[in-house]
Amino acid sequence: MKASRPLNRFINFGILWMFGITILRGLYKPNDWAEAHWLIDYEFGFLKRALPGTLLHPFITQQTAETTITIVSTTLLGIFFIALAWMCLDLLRTFGYKLEALLTTLVFLTSPYIVMSAYLNGYYDNLLILLSIAGILLVRQEKHLLAAIVMTVGILIHENIFLVGLPSVLFATVYYQTQKDGQFNLKIILRRALPFLLPVLAFIALFLFQSYCLNGDLLRSQLSAYLSQFEFIERNRDKTVPDAFTVSFLDYTERQSQFFMARIFNKNYLITILPTLISMLLFAGNIIPKNKNKKILLILLITISLVPLSLHLIARDTSRIWTFPLIAAFLGLWTISKNADKIKFTNTFRILYIIACAAVIIHNIFLETPLMGGLSERYSNNMRLGLYLPAFALIYIVHFIARKKYENIPS
């Protein structure tokens, strides 16, 4: 909306209001599982996920640990949500606040991923996505080595970034190369992606160490004794968290892989996640520059969106894993938007897409995202209607006025 910056601010306010309500639906203080992770550091050896605890260790005592963890993790969560808001508003500015872009943004900001991210306060997931965003920005500036170092740090924070964030950064490497060189040149892509062997090697080192170098029984007893010193670590987390730190990836695969197909084809999660995912992929497919590389890029985007679901092979937190494709798709969509074509939906498809997005937003607003730990979302349906409706009305009215006043703004 080049001609209407004041109107943009009203729309931004409505968007951020809806985003804030979605956050509050799932926001909780860090749970015992997350808090226990922040207490474990490299004093126990080269463990996966031990970097954050090592960095925090000098600042905590038994008396201050819980408060410090809550402050640090909630601050990081806030920074994460600010980053998502900035990305969404950046995407809208890129496409001139066109209705298709506006609705796609609202689809994401009301999605189960946002609710789950708020619930995961204290988990490392949000920090991993912040690092992935930084990696994409560095790739955009052709600082591939720095991006690879950032991803390597992410591996040391939590190995999930190998499947959730690293593919998005590699996709950015491929996308920006094809846009710069005008072709999909595998040799050039491999040369630019070469620094990303660093996080791959870091992951392999963790894998080998966890599989063959740990004395699991001894370490579990040490970690259990250590965590039991902290009174706020309850619900048997002084036993289950050490298990998570010491069991090898191979053992986790043996335990969990038998449930993989049931988790992938769980109809409840398919109904919960697919509407948002398909909406974002359709929009992304429309804005990828129309050249001989488009099909390859679209296939890669779909692939990086689905790759996180392979975590079902080694982990049982199904509801959490099912939301990862949404952030992977959004990172890809935002990457594409920097060198995208204009929105070129045909008139018929545009109308169908707008109707579908509106339906998905309503679906997301009244959806009960399956959380973990026996917790559930806040707000009844009537309360959600009362909280979301004013913001949605503001966005619609202002956009309608803008269309009438400025002929260059389509509704």
Explain the overall architecture.
By secondary structure, this protein is mostly helical. It has one domain. The chain is 71% helix and 0% strand. The chain contains 21 helices and no strands. The N and C termini lie close together (11 Å).
Briefly, what is this?
The chain is mainly α and 411 residues long. Helices cover 71% and strands 0% of the residues.
List keywords for this structure.
single chain; 411 residues; mainly alpha; 21 helices
The 3D shape can be described as: globular
Bin the helical content: over 70%
Series of H and E elements: HHHHHHHHHHHHHHHHHHHHH
Structural class, by secondary structure, is mainly alpha
Low-confidence stretches: none
Strand content: under 5%
Work out the number of β strands: 0
Quick one: biggest sheet?
Answer: none
Number of domains: 1
Average per-residue pLDDT, rounded, comes to: 90
- Total helices: the number is 21
Radius of gyration: 22 Å
